[in-house]
Amino acid sequence: MRIISGTHKGKRISAPKKLPVRPTTDMAKEALFNILNNRYYFDELTVVDLFSGTGNISYEFASRGTKNISAVDADYGCVKFINDTSDALEMGIAAFKSDVFTYLEKSREKATIIFADPPYDLPIESFEKIPQKVFENGLLLDNGLLIIEHSSHMDLSHLEHFVEKRKYGGSIFSFFAWPEPVTL
Asked: InterPro entries, from UniProt (predicted)?
């Protein structure tokens, strides 16, 4: 994986093979960050990266100037890798081990961007639970976006707060926001 833009542009990061991950492709990540770049100043964001895996998305935000990033993953190896990489690159990402659904129940941290990249083989009910818990618990700031990456074989457009979806290869980003109009 590589960092696309910012202070660490072009930096390649090699994750251990044993981690249970499926990183977001460079093509999909670049498209996503082009969307976000047109809407936000990265240095003003608060980001929560759920199912963070290798930390691919967190590193991209940090490289672009985001200072307040929390990465949440249930796998200790993933959390250790993110913390080690963040320390080595002086990114300041706060990675911690937690079941994402427990985190969504207990956390009161509000964020501008909540990015979730669950394992594609989770049942659709688990995917549906993410926006439900985010909005029910008020975890997204008024001008924020919840972005869920999922397989192109899944459709989340029926869920409350759904705004739009974008397809990149076999992946889709579904965007969710508070009721006021959002233009991507």
From this structure: RNA_MeTrfase_RsmD (IPR004398), SAM-dependent_MTases_sf (IPR029063)
